[in-house]
Amino acid sequence: MYFCLNRATAGGGLPLEQFVKLSADAGFPGADVDVSYGVANGAAALRDLYASHKLRFGGWALGDWRSDEAKHADMLAWLRKQAAIAAPLGIDSCCTWIMPSSKLPFLDNWNFHVQRLKPAAQVLADHGLRLGLEFIGPHHLRRANPHEFIHSPGLMLELGAAIGPNVGLLVDVFHCHTANVTWEHLASVPKEKIVLAHFNDAPRIPVAEVHDQKRLLPGEGGIDLRAFLDAVGRTGYAGPVSVEVFSEDLKRLSPAEAAGRAWAATRAFA
């Protein structure tokens, strides 16, 4: 496994060239990816950009699959172009998040997710790539809508199986913590079903009070991060671990300062 800088932590508004340089200058071994850069400039340009900074590829996000049918069709057309770039470069880390509550009843929401995500998973499968689904744990998001939805790895894997055989998980230590996922449970996930991992920390407060947008840098909170890394490692996963920290304190810093602080906190776990 290797750590990557996530745009939520630092450099969110920067062009990819500047974000990659920011990640390398801070000391990160990798940086999350905007595969659209490769669509615009070619796979070789994307490969060379990361190679010039001696960085490895991190995760990349699935486009907007929740909007109307026309936008969904546009997303799929763009995904075909992205997948054609990602596949030869080995960037097998496309992911999206699944909200843990909805205005739709559970079964209707399940069917909506299958209907919308199955075509995307098939596009990725056609290129030998996977799709990772992120379960979201914070209690306040489970209560944000009338109907609770999936917020655990087990049920998310079942949803993934209904979508396609190449669908797995994005495992975020923050959501494992807020969903009370045991490390033994996490370690039992099949290797091929972990597509990406996220790394951060949470305040030392009751789990039910933890807020999704108030995260800490690794080592600043109360999560047993070494146990998380051990559990993920026991699955056989050896891919990117993206350092994703939603923090108002970091937003007040310059991108270079925020990235530097993030690596200073993370390197103790490298």
Please specify the SSE layout and strand pairing.
Blueprint lengths: L1 E4 L10 H11 L3 E2 L3 H7 L1 H10 L3 E2 L2 E2 L7 H21 L4 E5 L2 E2 L3 H21 L4 E5 L3 H4 L4 E2 L4 H11 L3 E6 H6 L4 H5 L6 E6 L25 H10 L5 E4 L4 H4 L3 H12 L4
Parallel strand pairs: 1-2, 1-11, 2-3, 4-5, 5-7, 7-9, 9-10, 10-11
Antiparallel strand pairs: 6-8
Helix pairs in contact: 1-12, 2-3, 2-4, 4-5, 5-7
Labels describing this entry:
270 residues; alpha/beta; TIM Barrel; two-stranded antiparallel sheet; 11 strands
CATH architecture tag: Alpha-Beta Barrel
CATH level 3 topology: TIM Barrel
Mean pLDDT across the residues is 98
- Helical fraction: 40-55%
Give the low-confidence spans: none
Decide which structural class fits the backbone. Answer: alpha/beta
Explain what this protein looks like in three dimensions.
The protein has twelve helices and eleven strands. It is α/β, with parallel strands linked by helices and 270 residues long. α1 crosses α12 (255-266), α2 packs across α4 and α5 (106-126) crosses α7 (153-163). Strands 3-2-1-11-10-9-7-5-4 form a nine-stranded parallel beta sheet. A two-stranded antiparallel ribbon has the order 6-8. β1 (2-5), α1 and β2 form a beta-alpha-beta unit. It has one domain: Divalent-metal-dependent TIM barrel enzymes (TIM Barrel), CATH 3.20.20.150.
